[in-house]
Description:
Elements: H1 3-7, E1 16-17, E2 22-23, H2 27-46, H3 57-81, H4 86-117, E3 123-126, H5 132-136, E4 143-144, E5 155-159, E6 171-175, E7 181-182, E8 185-186, E9 191-193, E10 200-203, H6 208-211, H7 215-223, H8 226-238, E11 244-249, E12 256-261, E13 273-276, E14 280-282, E15 285-286, E16 290-292, H9 296-307
Antiparallel strand pairs: 1-4, 2-10, 3-10, 5-6, 6-9, 7-8, 11-12, 12-13, 13-16, 14-15
Helix pairs in contact: 2-4, 3-4
Amino acid sequence: MGILSEVFAAVADVAITGVGAAFRVAKKIVSAAIPRIQAAIAIAKNTWNHARSQRSAESIGAEIKDVNDHLSQLQLQYERTGKVDSELVERLKAQRRDLKGELRESDEFIAASDISANEKEYDAFIIDNDSTHIIEAAMGQTVHNKPCPKCKWPMRLQWNRKLSVTSTSDLGWACTHWYWKTNGAHVCDHWEKLHPDDFQIFAKANRPEFTDLTASQFSDLVLAHQPEVIERMEDVLKDSQINSINAYRCPVHGEPLVLRKKIQHNGTLLDMYHLKCPRWKGVNVGCQYMDKLKSPAQLHAFLSASTGQGVF
């Protein structure tokens, strides 16, 4: 369990994204939580028992990549010979699960450190139809503490992707197991609307784009600057150092998703880009997990995470 999960443990079902946004956290809880987060960070930085939490995501990620490479080699061996060391496969998968657990601790340590250092940028919000872009900004990011009630796979935030501006009724949780199929059918198609308590959010959103603009105004402003945003996305696309970031990871392989551009698109910003697992090898070949960047706020969050500056 990571630092944020421990701090919010008294609150039922707190889902936490890879960048530290927490759902089902009322404002009255935040005032008590901030000092506890700051105290936990101080302990973590000075206590040997928490050294694991300070391991870099890059170091853990490199180990995960090695494990995934080994598993891929074993899969190829099985396809070629029909034989494989099943015990070795299970050991590697167990190692990957442990490493993904370390990544979660790393995510929460980094997020908690940022909360501690930049407290004024964080606040508790109650999301309504004018502020749905705060939730949209977290779309596609890794979410901890939100397993699917049907299959126990991690869930992610989802919405009606045909809309450039959403209302609260358009938002929900979707099982990531949907991206895998058995005999042509999705392994799990569970989807649920956000619970009323989910609209109580603690996030790094005490910034003008979220506090001074409604969701509709924010969307209009981003779409009015499509050429500039596309130019920046193209720059990220070409830069292997920033076109995959830890906030967005494959739920199976644990590796950062990679920015890709659709081969066929309609020429508009909201139909051009998506994030895919680096283990994707083509349609129905390799890992099929992906996340479409279909929201102005989502594009803003991705640019902010990859370049340090959002759309504006």
